[in-house]
């Protein structure tokens, strides 16, 4: 069954949101759900994020009396992370996420979950960009006296900004409803299915930019006049993202 036929046959009671992969049969009566994983991840990660973020913010603002653009973007990213996770939980509570699309009927679908999905996909790019911007600005604050390093930092900021902005626009162009389309109809179109390629590209860019951030401070950190053990410790702190 093609995606086009899915979009045009929403009135059929046994039409899945998306066609199952070859060899897979849709299971409308007892669909397998992975929603519990979202609750486990949120319950385990959000408290850790808030704890370490609070320690960094308290240390910089009240102990070291330091206020930088890196601190501002870091606080913004922390708040955004909590809100973003809240939106994920809200979408899971809609009862339509955590299941395979081919195990869900179009007749049972409502617009709200798909609106949440589009909102999450649209906010993901800016969210990740703010996180990476915080790291770049921190390195610029610490090692920005060297000209070559400043150029590398601004290059990373420019490329990250351009990619995440363009990916957000592409997501909206591909999956936002057009004309009288509902969110359900829009997500069932072949146009929106192309967003899968965008997700893969974004994953590749995320990995490449993460490695760029990991490698960026190594040279300057190793030039610090301190013991090797302490320099390696500083690099380890950078790798946590909470420096």
Summarize the topology.
Layout: H1 3-8, H2 35-63, H3 69-93, H4 111-143, H5 147-175, H6 183-187, H7 190-193, H8 195-215, H9 218-222, H10 228-240
Helix pairs in contact: 2-3, 3-4, 4-5, 5-8
Short description:
With 243 residues, the protein is an all-alpha fold. It has helices at residues 3-8, 35-63, 69-93, 111-143, 147-175, 183-187, 190-193, 195-215, 218-222, 228-240. The chain is elongated.
Commentary on this structure:
By secondary structure, this protein is mostly helical. It is about 70% helix and about 0% strand. Helix 2 (about 35-65) runs antiparallel to helix 3 (about 70-95), helix 3 packs antiparallel against helix 4 (about 110-145) and helix 5 runs antiparallel to helix 8. Residues about 1-10 have low confidence and may be disordered.
Describe the main β-sheet briefly: none
Gross geometry: elongated
Q: Would you report the number of β strands?
A: 0
Mean model confidence by pLDDT: 81
Which value, in Å, is the CA radius of gyration? 22 Å
Helical coverage, percent range:
55-70%
Q: Distance between the terminal alpha carbons, to the nearest Å? A: 51 Å
Structural class, by secondary structure, is mainly alpha
What quaternary form is this? single chain
Q: Hey, roughly how much beta strand do the residues contain?
A: under 5%
């Amino acid at each position: 069954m093609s995606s086009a036929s899915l979009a045009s046959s929403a009135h059929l009671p046994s039409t899945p949101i998306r066609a199952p992969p070859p060899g897979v049969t849709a299971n409308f009566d007892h669909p397998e759900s992975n929603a519990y994983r979202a609750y486990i991840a949120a319950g385990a990660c959000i408290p850790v994020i808030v704890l370490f973020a609070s320690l960094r913010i308290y240390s910089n603002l009240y102990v070291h009396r330091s206020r930088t653009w890196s601190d501002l973007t870091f606080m913004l990213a922390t708040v955004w992370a909590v809100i973003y996770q809240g939106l994920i939980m809200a979408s899971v509570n809609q009862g339509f996420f955590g299941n395979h699309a081919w195990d869900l009927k179009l007749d049972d679908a409502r617009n709200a979950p798909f609106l949440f999905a589009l909102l999450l996909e649209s906010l993901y790019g800016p969210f990740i960009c703010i996180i990476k911007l915080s790291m770049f600005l921190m390195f610029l604050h610490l090692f920005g006296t060297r000209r070559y390093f400043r150029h590398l930092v601004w290059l990373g900021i420019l490329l990250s900004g351009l990619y995440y902005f363009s990916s957000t626009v592409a997501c909206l162009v591909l999956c936002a409803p057009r004309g009288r389309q509902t969110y359900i109809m829009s997500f069932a179109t072949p146009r929106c299915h192309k967003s899968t390629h965008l997700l893969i590209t974004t994953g590749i860019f995320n990995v490449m930019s993460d490695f760029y951030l990991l490698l960026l401070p190594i040279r300057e950190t190793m030039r610090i006049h301190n013991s090797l053990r302490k320099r390696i410790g500083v690099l380890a702190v950078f790798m946590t993202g909470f420096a």
